[in-house]
Design brief:
alpha+beta, elongated, 121 residues, 4 helices, 8% strand, 4 strands
Length: 121
């Protein structure tokens, strides 16, 4: 895979796409959490050690949501970006040298990117 790098202008041009991807990840994360809770509640509907149809349907939807969330993170990766492990919805963008340390960050609440060094504080 080719190393991605962005100057400030290039990173700023990513913002609309990053907003869209981050929104997708957030929606999928919320759906996953709700479905996991529903699965726990539906455990009591099992009969004779077999899951109910509703349980199986929720389990299937949960699998779909997890797959779509993985695909959204993969889309970020293809851009050379990644989610910050310390702040899950902050997107790190590689700088001109290809590193995140010299790059930029977007936290989902700002209308602009900031230098990654400023985001670390």
């Amino acid at each position: 895979m080719k190393l991605s790098s962005y100057d400030r202008s290039g990173a700023e041009h990513l913002l609309p796409l990053l907003r869209s991807i981050a929104s997708e990840i957030l929606e999928r994360s919320d759906a996953i959490e709700a479905l996991e809770e529903k699965l726990l509640a539906l455990r009591s509907t099992w009969k004779d050690g077999k899951a109910s149809d509703e349980y199986l349907n929720v389990q299937s939807e949960l699998s779909n949501q997890r797959r779509e969330a993985r695909l959204s993170r993969l889309e970020l990766s293809r851009l050379g970006c990644t989610l910050d492990e310390d702040r899950p919805l902050r997107v790190l963008i590689p700088g001109e040298d290809g590193s995140f340390d010299a790059g930029y960050a977007w936290d989902g609440t700002l209308d602009a990117i900031i230098p990654a060094t400023a985001a670390a504080t």
